[in-house]
Amino acid sequence: MRSTPPGGDPQTPGREPAVEVVGLIKRYGSKTAVDGLDLTVARDSVTAVLGPNGAGKTTTVETCEGYRRPDAGRVRVLGLDPVADAAALRPRIGVMLQSGGVYAGARAEEMLRHTATLHAHPLDVADLIDRLGLGSCGRTPYRRLSGGQQQRLALAMAVVGRPELVFLDEPTAGLDPQARHATWDLVRELRADGVSVVLTTHFMDEAEQLADDVAIIDGGRVIAQGSPEELCKGGAENSLRFTGRPGLDIASLLKALPADSIAAELAAGTYRVNGRIDPQLLATVTSWCAQNGVMPDSIAVERHTLEDVFLELTGKELRA
Amino acid sequence: MTAGTGTFAPRPGAAPLPRMIRAQAALETRMLLRNGEQLLLTVVIPTLLLVLFSAVDIIDTGAGKSVDFLAPGILALAVLSTAFTGQAIATGFERRYGVLKRLGASPLPRWALMTAKTCAVLVTEVLQVVLLTVVAFALGWSPHGNPVSVVLLLLVGTAAFSGLGLLMAGTLKAEATLAAANLVFLLLLVGGGVIVPLAKFPEGAQAVLGLLPISALSDGLRTVLQHGAGVPWGDLGILAVWAVLGLGAAAKFFRWE
Lengths: 320, 257
Fold this sequence. Notes:
heterodimer, A: alpha/beta, 6-stranded mixed sheet, 11 helices, 13 strands, 26% strand, B: mainly alpha, 10 helices, antibiotic resistance (chain B), membrane (chain B), ABC_2_transport (chain B), transmembrane helix (chain B), ABC2_TM (chain B)
């Protein structure tokens, strides 16, 4: 599953992908932040960009937003060059930076109204404020908003101009569960209404919940890309866990299972089988239980989560 | 594009340029006038200095009423405080907090943002000039000269100080800008012929101090308002050179992040 080649999905003729990055290289001094990265984002989809700190997520997104000039490679956003065609592109995209972006003394509602004024057909500001729960702090200066309120304001500013494509850099960092769910709902609604979304996140559940497509970046490259389901069933094998009375004869279970399976008693009365978990294997385990007079109190197939896949691909050591 | 009907169905587009610039200028002006530290610098300090030094004979300002000497200097100080110090500090922190970066991704072009900032500076200066003029008249000021020369000096002076302020804001850290802009304000207040006549300094120093933009502005304004002279081309020339150098360097070296 390493590096599912991007760009495979057919696009509607005459409609370029939302984002098309080929062979992007970006260096800061002697440090290579992005090292030959390929990424294609389909229209009307939500794409989550995952990666450890320093993997190159923000650099990649900011190159798409026109903030960074690529050292090599080709970047097209809605078919346009983010640097050369900036004037044409900017009204069509919405940007949420990782932090900041608002005058310290500006009030929340004032800033959102101002951002709306810069666009030709903005959303209804009052409605957006309501939806993101910013009503109670509409007159509060930005510097006195909580971190979560600042995040929600930045999100509102990114979508108020009715863009075709939004870039959200860690949109739910620092949010409480309610605000997180409000943000998720908004992202789902954006997608349903035909807005393409690119978001970076550290939260695997966020990617699993929202993303049609996940790109895992490490060392400045995309090391895996696919739907959350594809990534999870891909490389890592799954396991089956059941409980019964302690001290069952593992050797006899193994004889019944396919040759490449592994079985173990993890704790007294808890057993795990690793291998190719399919209906046939499940039937084998239950019939073995029946033959041995074992009543499994619980039996469950354990799928690998996106987090397992992520850690497997990017390693478990801490990053700077 | 999918013909969507939902709330968020894309309908992108930039607002007309005049509307964007108007809105941005209004926002920038509100930010300036809402900021307490800025008001201290642009309103309270010049007014206090004008009243204090006119009423109390602290500095020998030569023949005539001291307000006639002081008012032109204080007007120059007002331009310095808004176009240079205030703008440098505000822009430095906008850069630091990603405001300039975020606006860079909006439909507002950069030149339009700078135009809006200039409008905000000019609006603030008009308010300052009105206030200081009223206070000066109350103190017995009797100005002379052609108002057109005065406006010309104020405008070229604003250009010179804006260039220097933006150069500082766009190259230094916000904290360094804050410190340096205040220090420069203080030094120019003392050494730029604002309240202390340049004649008080040693002759060698006078020649150098006379080339400072603040000295050219206060001297030019004084030549017109106190002595009723025509257009002070020498002072205007000095300010124009500073404006070209400052704005040119700012355009070249300004970093948006």
